[in-house]
Design brief:
The chain is of the alpha/beta class. The chain has three domains: 125 residues, no CATH class; 251 residues; 238 residues, Carbon-nitrogen hydrolase (Nitrilase/N-carbamoyl-D-aminoacid amidohydrolase). It is built from 24 helices and twelve strands. It has a six-stranded mixed sheet with strand order 5-4-3-2-1-12. A six-stranded mixed sheet has the order 6-7-8-9-10-11, covered by helices on one side. A hairpin with a 5-residue loop joins strand 4 and strand 5. Helix 1 runs antiparallel to helix 2. It is globular and about 90 Å long.
């Protein structure tokens, strides 16, 4: 960061010198002032402000995590990085380094826009304060409005300000940005949209600074490239679309963009605005038709219609204003009513007199519409097909703690759960770290890890209960240099008699921190990852359905439950229950845990299946098929949830049947809109 800070200071000095030269030439009446002065006043200040803001955020976030144990392990392995004496002192140093630069950039941006107001009208010309319109003012203040949208976007999701998220903000958060994109010229629109996207990415994913030294940098660089390409394409279509179709372009394009960034090695479907509605089942039910993408589109459409109403008023378009106001009013009434109903009866199953509430009637209607029905009650009083699961949250990061101590915590919590006679004990991702296959093949006296594994196996046989745990696993494969070991992130099922029944190897791995496929093509980057203490696995190839009496379930591991298509494939393979094993303890923040859980809720709705999550600490919870969180453990506490999870007999939901059909359909719609704009008669659009 030291070299980047030096470059930033140099850019400020150069920009300041040019600005003073422009002012001097203007006073002397030289042409340089007229040609270059406004550019430096309006645009250079924006570029520097965005750059300074991003670098200061980087520095602050890493200062807040100074002394993290992953940093200490990096230093111990020979890494060249300075360990701050304490985080408070380091954050103060960041404030002192970047504070003056930020203050100068903000002052430059504000004063550059206020200068014409205090200048005599005759000296200003046709764009004098008296003649400037509101649209002109929006154009001048477009960067602050865009950054405001980025902030509101982050606050709508679980955030540093509200770990549960401020869901109503999602319906209006992008209105300022959409107005700017409608009125701004094409190049400036790309810049403002990209700046808002990058800032939103940093604010939503700030906790990546606690995961690894490289994670936040990679995420931001990828976001910069993705948002620049997205804005260039989306605005190109929007500027050419016919007026009647323009309001649908950005919502459709943004939904397609969210879908595209979930694909491939770099796929990262995190922070999508639709996931902010995880606590509003009346809204999320559309996910059973078109996935989370349909919810995202609805939220973005409301933002777009509101922005269209504003721009129509500003541009004096009576027809556009009437249509936008009418459409926006319909959305406000419909979704305002839904949110009010959720706030009054959303959390209740019965009213004060014990009768089914309106909420229960709605969710039962949704369940019936999807063809679900609960199985009849068995002899033990529970519905047939019900499995009693004990979800164990040990509240430690297994990778960074004493393995024997973690095992003792798991055993103590599991023993307490046995009093409720569970059918299945569920432990988190890599809850038990020593490799069970490797160390279990040795005698207890050969190694302390072998002793831990044998102790685990003996204890589990004594419980007489099924056990599902996360663990490392491996295969020995023939390679050019002989036998090679291939490591996997795995979940393992043990029968009540202690037999290892089945193993699932995680398929969708976290890019750069769990998996890197370009070892030979990019050896330098691969060496850098290893130097930064990255533990790499290989992806699995088989979607496993675990089968125990009463339930068939699959175990997407951690990051995998963020991918709609990945979980859908498990359901298509025959899973009746989704069991997610995660380790979110490392983030040390409720925000990451809630963002992860918000994503996972949609997998239940999309496929009409119950979902349970067992985390080291994250959000250990139970989610019903319509997306309600029916039980949850406190964050960052040792806890156990014992819940009866009933598989439902269900005709396949439309999403499970058709998959991600909705974003490609929107892509086709965008092609048609672009074609109509190119080949039809279309009046010029302001701000092209």
């Amino acid at each position: 960061m030291t070299s980047a800070y030096g470059v930033l200071v140099g850019l400020h000095l150069v920009a300041g010198a040019l600005m003073f030269a422009s002012l001097a030439r203007r006073r002397a009446g030289l042409p340089f002032a007229a040609a270059r002065g406004p550019w430096f006043r309006l645009h250079a200040s924006e570029l520097l402000l965005v750059l300074t803001l991003c670098l200061s955020l980087f520095s602050y976030l890493y200062a807040a995590n100074a002394g993290m144990d992953y940093v200490q392990r990096f230093i111990a392995s020979g890494g060249d990085v300075r360990l701050a004496p304490d985080t408070r002192r380091e954050r103060l140093a960041v404030a002192l380094r970047y504070g003056p630069l930020l203050a100068a950039d903000v002052a430059w941006l504000v004063l550059g826009r206020l200068a014409p107001v205090f200048r005599p009208a005759a000296a200003v010309g046709p764009r004098s304060p008296a003649r400037r319109t509101v649209a002109d003012l929006i154009g001048e203040w477009s960067l602050p409005l865009s950054l405001l949208s980025a902030l509101l976007y982050a606050l709508a999701l679980p955030s540093f300000a509200a770990p549960e998220g401020l869901a109503p903000l999602a319906w209006v958060c992008l209105v300022p940005l959409f107005v700017v994109l409608e009125l701004a010229p094409y190049p400036r629109g790309i810049f403002h949209g990209t700046a808002a996207g990058v800032l939103a990415t940093m604010l939503v994913n700030y906790w990546l600074g606690t995961f690894h030294l490289l994670s936040l940098q990679f995420a931001t660089i990828v976001a910069l490239a993705e948002y620049a390409a997205f804005m260039a394409a989306a605005l190109w279509i929007a500027k050419r679309a016919r007026p009647g179709a323009r309001f649908i372009v950005l919502p459709a394009a943004w939904t397609v963009f969210d879908w595209l960034r979930s694909l491939g090695f770099l796929g990262y479907p995190w922070g999508m605005i639709g996931t902010s509605q995880y606590g509003a089942p009346l809204v999320t039910q559309t996910a059973s038709i078109g996935g989370v993408w349909m919810v995202t589109f609805l939220v973005l459409l409301v933002n777009s219609v509101a922005a269209g109403t504003i721009t129509s008023v500003l541009q004096g378009s009576r027809r556009g204003r009437a249509a936008s106001v009418s459409l926006f009013a319909c959305f406000v009434v419909a979704f305002g009513w839904a949110q009010w109903r959720l706030s009054t009866v959303g959390a209740k199953d019965t009213d004060v007199q014990g009768r089914p509430s309106a909420w229960t009637s709605v969710t039962q209607g949704v369940t019936a519409a999807q063809g679900m029905r609960v199985r009849p009650t068995g002899a033990d009083g529970r519905p047939a097909g019900t499995v009693r699961m004990a979800l164990v949250q040990q509240n430690s990061d297994p990778r960074k703690n004493d393995y024997a101590e973690t095992w003792r915590i798991l055993r103590r919590l599991s023993d307490s759960a046995l009093a409720d006679q569970p059918d299945l004990l569920v432990w988190s991702e890599t809850a038990f770290v020593p490799n069970i296959r490797r160390w279990g093949a040795m005698t207890p006296g050969e190694h302390p890890y072998a002793e831990l594994v044998h102790e685990l196996r003996e204890w589990q046989r004594g419980t007489g209960v099924w056990l599902l745990t996360g663990n490392d696993d491996y295969d020995l494969l023939d390679g050019p240099d002989g036998e090679e070991r291939v490591d996997y992130n795995a979940s393992i099922l043990f029968s009540p008699s202690g037999e290892r029944v089945e193993t699932y190897h995680k398929i969708r791995l976290v890019p750069f921190t769990e998996y890197f496929p370009w070892k030979e093509q990019l050896p330098g980057l691969y060496a850098l990852l290893l130097r930064f203490d990255v533990h790499l696995w290989e992806p699995g190839s088989r979607r496993v359905v675990f089968r125990i009496p009463g339930a068939d379930f699959s175990t997407p591991i951690c990051f995998e439950d963020a991918f709609p298509g990945e979980v859908r494939k498990f359901i298509r393979a025959g899973a009746g229950v989704i069991v997610n094993l995660s380790n979110d303890f490392w983030s040390l923040t409720e925000v990451e845990a809630m963002q992860h859980a918000a994503n996972a809720v949609f997998r239940a709705v999309e496929n009409g299946r119950p979902l349970v999550r067992a985390t080291a600490s994250g959000l250990t919870c139970v989610v019903d098929p319509v997306g309600r969180i029916t039980a949850r453990a406190p964050l960052y506490e040792e806890a156990v949830i014992v819940a009866d999870v009933t598989a439902v007999e269900c005709r396949t939901t439309l999403y499970t049947r058709w998959g991600d059909w909705f974003p490609p359909a929107l892509a086709v719609l965008l092609v048609l809109v672009a074609a109509a704009g190119l080949f039809g008669r279309n009046p010029p659009v302001r701000g092209r």
